[in-house]
Amino acid sequence: MPIPDYGNRARCLVRLMRLGMPVPDAVALSVAAVRAIAAGQMPDVASILAVFGADPVVSVRSSPENPAWGGPGTVLNIGLNEKVCARLAEHLGEDAAAEIYARFVQSYSVHVARLDAEEFAACFQPGIPAAESRDLALRTYELEMEEPFPQDPAVQLGHVLRSMARAWEGTTARLLRQAKGAPADAALGLIVQRMALGLGPGECGAGVMQLVSSATGAPQITGRYQSQAQGREALDGENGVAYLTRDARGPSLQDICPAAFADLEAYAREARRGLRDEVQIEFTIEGGEARILDAAAVQRSARAAVRIAVDLAEDGIIPREEALARIEPRALTEMLHPQIDPRTQRDVFAHGIAASPGAATGRIVFNSNAAQASAAQDEPCILVRFETSTEDVRGMHAASGVLTERGGVTSHAAVIARGIGVPCVVGASDLNLNPREKTLTARDGRVFREGDLITLDGSSGEVLAGAVPTVEAALDDAFVSLMEWADAVRDIGVRANADTPADAQLARSFNAEGIGLCRTEHMFFEEDRLTVMREMIFADTPEDRRAALEVLLPMQRDDFAALFETMQGQPVCIRLFDPPLHEFLPSGREAMLDLAEALDLPVSRVVSRIEALQEFNPMLGMRGVRLGITVPEIYEMQARAIFEATIEASRNGDPVVPEIMIPLVSARREVELVKTRVDAIAAAVRTEKGADFNYTLGVMVETPRAALRAGDIATTSDFLSFGTNDLTQMTYGLSRDDAGRFMSTYVSLGVYPEDPFHTLDPDGVGELLLIAAERGRDARPDLTLSICGEHGGSPESIAFCRRAGFDYVSCSPFRVPVARLAAAQLALTDRVEDRKIAE
Amino acid sequence: MPIPDYGNRARCLVRLMRLGMPVPDAVALSVAAVRAIAAGQMPDVASILAVFGADPVVSVRSSPENPAWGGPGTVLNIGLNEKVCARLAEHLGEDAAAEIYARFVQSYSVHVARLDAEEFAACFQPGIPAAESRDLALRTYELEMEEPFPQDPAVQLGHVLRSMARAWEGTTARLLRQAKGAPADAALGLIVQRMALGLGPGECGAGVMQLVSSATGAPQITGRYQSQAQGREALDGENGVAYLTRDARGPSLQDICPAAFADLEAYAREARRGLRDEVQIEFTIEGGEARILDAAAVQRSARAAVRIAVDLAEDGIIPREEALARIEPRALTEMLHPQIDPRTQRDVFAHGIAASPGAATGRIVFNSNAAQASAAQDEPCILVRFETSTEDVRGMHAASGVLTERGGVTSHAAVIARGIGVPCVVGASDLNLNPREKTLTARDGRVFREGDLITLDGSSGEVLAGAVPTVEAALDDAFVSLMEWADAVRDIGVRANADTPADAQLARSFNAEGIGLCRTEHMFFEEDRLTVMREMIFADTPEDRRAALEVLLPMQRDDFAALFETMQGQPVCIRLFDPPLHEFLPSGREAMLDLAEALDLPVSRVVSRIEALQEFNPMLGMRGVRLGITVPEIYEMQARAIFEATIEASRNGDPVVPEIMIPLVSARREVELVKTRVDAIAAAVRTEKGADFNYTLGVMVETPRAALRAGDIATTSDFLSFGTNDLTQMTYGLSRDDAGRFMSTYVSLGVYPEDPFHTLDPDGVGELLLIAAERGRDARPDLTLSICGEHGGSPESIAFCRRAGFDYVSCSPFRVPVARLAAAQLALTDRVEDRKIAE
Known about the structure:
Two copies of one chain form a homodimer. Chain A is built from 33 helices and 30 strands. By secondary structure, chain A is of the alpha/beta class.
């Protein structure tokens, strides 16, 4: 026989009772019973009420399987009728008794009998005495229902139970909870509990209490209390609500009823220990005595969640493993974003709602396509919209920050931005957005246009003109502890993608175990280097090319030396030059003229060279190793720069072992040819400098063919690192830059379950990864395997890489903590499963 | 003990002897013996000579393992010395004896002793008596060698053998024959044979005879004869050479010596039967008696090769299977090219050497890159070069014809063009080519520029201005028989790629078993349709798009109806619309203006639409099924056109079962979505027309993901056809249009063993084909599998497709016969191997 299921709240109440807390008597209806009620089979209501003795007054609360799914609202005071009220009047006085009865009739009529709420609101107009309100309410009920208000508590309870059971099955409720991830057959139990009235002589009232701050998770007794009140809802108002602890701003429970306060604090601590989480207790005080009605996990920010979990573990309440398991890895990104430097002079031109924390600077774009185009060029941008919708999600992923004119803290923009950890300000209604003109006008008349730099403070809701200095996120002790615990169980490496010493510094601050991808081409776009690059491109002979590259060599060497020094002996994987050369040439007529002057060449020569370098499909053209083989001087210069920097950095600290990665490989021979040259350069540098060093050489697997031929390629490679971005593009035959036009249609039609550029495609791209991993390791058991595409930091890809036996994942610095935690959770899940199998 | 190997010519001689032919005595030196000679170990020369009795006069010929590899030239008259010459003088007279001795001394000095040929040419100046020439030659030898001319026949023979053995091992000889495919250790035997002098009283002389025309393979006794002459070389001159058969143009052997002629003809027929091939016999007549010195396979054109093989089979000399095996499939293309219509007025502006047959019309291009770019746009071109070299091969593949200013019939251009079946005229030296100016100036002063249309007649060597009408190749009876025999053994289908009724007609004439790929987009580029296409592209609503497509519908329907009627019930596989829409829009400013006027739209609207449709990587963008799903009206119109044409064509003939193919699929759901719409259109057309029809729906596998997911995709597809061109591009991450820049470097460095766009990559792309075939058939055992990329017709890909269990290959119409023969050969090879295994 299966154990009956009563839902989460019922289980929680049982635990509280077992802990010896003063919980009013309760009867739980099982999930099966509630289903039966919804189907029309009522339980024996009278026998339920019998538990509570004569003239019972009870409440009914919902007890869904998962508290996050919500459920029908609590109904209080069931059982009130003429007779009970007459008796209550003895305690509470006539007015109070009439008031509570009137409120019950109203609540029952609206929520159970489903009568028009407006009609009943009229019964409670200001100035109407309580007895009159009661009579009005009773009459209204009778008029609408064509029968008197039921006096039998069993009839009342029966209707309440049926109404709540059916509300749970209603279409709207089902859709709402399915949106929160509930299954179609989500389970609901119900709890019938003796009312603790919270009314009457002595100190009576209702309140909630929790021991920590929801914002930070730090210890802080928080909550509200109201005398002569019932239920959680009573606390929502402003009038007469007291603080819990002594407070200069107003009255407090600690002052009003110190004994009850002390009991409650003790109960809350007990509940925390017993329920193994920070909880908010709901309580009633009757004649100075505390009663516990409910306890629910406290609402918490990501930061608080970390603090709570770590504190629970440190208090010995939960094991560290459980602390790790309780944090949603993606939520960590919220904590990691830099903040605007507090010492900065702020040029604020608009205010909105702080919807997703962190500071972001970028150029204004007005639609998602522009955001993606900008991201494709590694140009940070701020996406500015009236409000966002599903089709903006890709643009939001691409943007550094999101600003909307409309919407609140639960608007689409706010929810999505927090989910993906992008700073966001919503409802900046003092701005005037004109997407046609592509302008954003501030109240002070300043006009910002597409391409203008602005900064968002997602933690304060301010919008600032220009770029401003930022400081890194303050990573508190709890965070550091959690990460340490994660690292202790994690069984796959986590590195960061970092192109500059600043990136590398960030990677270190997030404890990345090295750099998994350093793209070198960015280094050539800096103003002084670009001219030399162009000279190189216009060179007619290898000698002329070498001469130009000779100028770049010391700059590259310094780039690498700085990177090595920042990483202090941790591994650094450097990808050799990858983009097509035409990316370095100007496109406008005027810029071509400038270039012709700078290079002292006829314009026609510049134009024809630029035309000659144009490509139909640059993604699939002359770049990566193809350039490395046909214009070998570039890789030669880079190898020399790497080796000279290696010697330099090793002199000052730990010996550096650079990892050199070849992009866009499709055949083993490409690796052999590059390896031959790189080895020769290494030998030459060793001789010239009289210093020794080691290095490894591997391949960035980006073409399907490289994946299929991994066994062959591994014979001449020390490592394979999967560039899943390009690999996805080629496997699908789908350019990321061009996919924006139809990706949202595709995802909404279910053609692709997810955008494969966001979530690693496990079937196509994933299979290529598995094939390559297996063949590579077969050919070379010590082959290092990793992933360095943008998928690298996502929990799904980490799961995939662990199963495939990869050595590490590499992701953007901000995703490093996410990856560390996700990896730990996966390792823990495996342990549990291993244990299950062992049992 | 291994059987000693004597080389091909020795084996042939032995067979001739066994056939009872009058072959002069001979001693064969084995390959091992020749190797020993080259290494300095001489055989017992005296005992070889002993075979030929006292005062022997012998020749030495080379006997390589494969006659195509060439070998050192024959040395005649070895053994001549004072004494023998004195005896010869009795027969031949003093002068003749002196002459032959002098010639021997010259030949020995130059070819064996390696003395300067110039010195000896001087001995034979006109007017010098024979005896004086002899004495001069002997003195020159003595002066140069500082010893008298050797009188001992054994010494002479020894030196000849050593010289020939060493010449074979020389670097130049080795490189030359390796270029012809010979292995590094290619084997050579030598034959020492009694001289049949061909000089003396009675009818004496030398000649060659074959029974067929080398050009056509038709029966025709062909050859030359010269009285009082020795060896094959004597026939090269013009003077005194006689025809074989009676001939009005001059003397003939049939007249001079009818008995010897009759004998020779009989011997030739006997040799044909005994050697199982058409051979050219080399003979000597001595005193009216024919002697047979050698027999070698006749030189033959592709056309002659087919005729010879078919005739041998029909005469019962070889089995049909062997006839099939003897024809190199690629050589067939030479026979298949159209010829210039003989009724055409020819505007010839240059003459050259007819180097590769067939007529070709195209626009002038001056380098290989331009040829490839032109081919990528399906624009036929004529590649014009001074001469060609290895780096032009890709351009030659891409060109419709090749024209060179320099070079002869064995120049690089001529050899390659014949090999790949491209019409070619070489050595058109009356043209003035200026590749810098990109002009081609005719002797009459006319200047042709890049982009101008010209026509080559590769069969006559003429170069014509403009395009001219052509007639299809005349496929003779032998060709038809060979193809029938091929079809009888072939076990894989061969279809043609054909977009138009004209293509389809050509496909039928080459007996293609249907159309494997009909690209529909070409149909939209015709002038009247392009405007409607553009209207469709500029339509704002699905209704407006449908209205534009409504106009295209009857045109498409007529296209398909014509195609179905041409194919007379054979299967036709139609690929739905594939290219990106921007291909249909103009690019120049002026053309945009025109379009704006035509569509009655503001120019800005036209410009912005064109800009919006631009793509970074069109190959990987919004095309194929992606367009079909996001703009579904196009596929709906096409499906309707196909079905209506099906009903129409089925009314007039065999029922048509169209095959509808979806391009660029990467996920099963794409197929499902298109299938739902196509099925709905089919149902609608059936109802509207009150007629029934069947059709199949399948997928063009062009993305690596479609290959990997073939099992999934096959569940909703009737067939999978591999578009190996795009699949290669995506598997390598390599755009065909952009690869030209480095492909020759890549192939020459051995990065890729072959250009993967010419030869199917068996390791990467091939593996995807195998994976897809296996998974597809697992999911759906009746799945039809085929290949329709440009690789389709090559013997290598056919071999691959047979092994993978494909149903058919589809290739350009001209390659259909190649494919049919190659498939037959592969089936035969398998049979032989099966038999071997069975044994």
